[in-house]
Design a protein that fits this description.
alpha+beta; about 20% helix
Length: about 150
């Protein structure tokens, strides 16, 4: 079971939780940063952080499904945005807030950064998610052989 909570004595967060606790026995998936590339490696949404955020969420969902989880099981995320002003961060957060990622308020950090790894990339999201007991990893994934990658 996942418990998401707001700490007493702290200002209530608008769209996230202060803490997420997973009961013992659950598996966790630590997800690499999802980036705004399509299946062919092309940048989606050049110059548009909102379009890039939508693609990043699609890619994160696909990666989570590969390990037997989904966006509703995310416990913690970090959202990186190439931005100089808080308004750019707010536009990206609005997309995140309206996505399946917001199904259960999770812990999250929203950061403005100066650059990301791909030319033209404006958004990246990392996450930690619970993997439901019925979820199964791809064959060979338990022994760390990189199954599921090509």
């Amino acid at each position: 079971m996942i418990h998401r909570m707001t700490a007493a004595g702290l200002f209530p967060p608008p769209d996230y939780a202060h803490a997420a606790v997973v009961e013992a026995g659950r598996r966790l998936a630590f997800m690499a940063g999802a980036v705004p590339l399509d299946g062919e490696g092309g940048l989606v949404g050049a110059g548009d952080p909102v379009a890039q955020t939508r693609q990043v969420l699609v890619n994160l969902r696909i990666a989570l499904e590969e390990v037997g989880s989904d966006l509703s099981q995310v416990l913690s995320s970090t959202v990186y945005v190439v931005a100089d002003v808080p308004g750019d961060l707010a536009r990206v957060w609005e997309v995140v807030r309206r996505s399946e990622l917001a199904a259960g308020p999770h812990t999250s950090t929203l950061l403005g950064v100066s650059c990301l790894g791909y030319t033209g990339q404006l958004v990246e999201i990392t996450a930690v998610a619970a993997v439901p007991d019925e979820g199964s990893l791809p064959p060979g994934a338990e022994n760390g052989d990189g199954a599921g990658t090509s």
